[in-house]
Amino acid sequence: KGVEKNQSLAVYYYQLSAQLGNTIGQNNLGVAYQEGNGVEKNFTIAIYWYKKALELKNTFFEDENTKSYV
Fold it and tell me: How many helical (H) and strand (E) elements, i.e. helices and strands, does the chain have?
């Protein structure tokens, strides 16, 4: 069965790690805002976090879907 999903709590921890400069947290936060997972969809905020991750050289999320947003 495992643990029940809590997307709002996940976003909380993504936010914490993103603010500390963790590029995976920044990317995950961008995805959350892009998809509306645990937060209201907001492409402007999603792009902000994608750009922050790029500034720190995270290429993890550079695929054909996200390149069109950044």
Answer: 4, 0
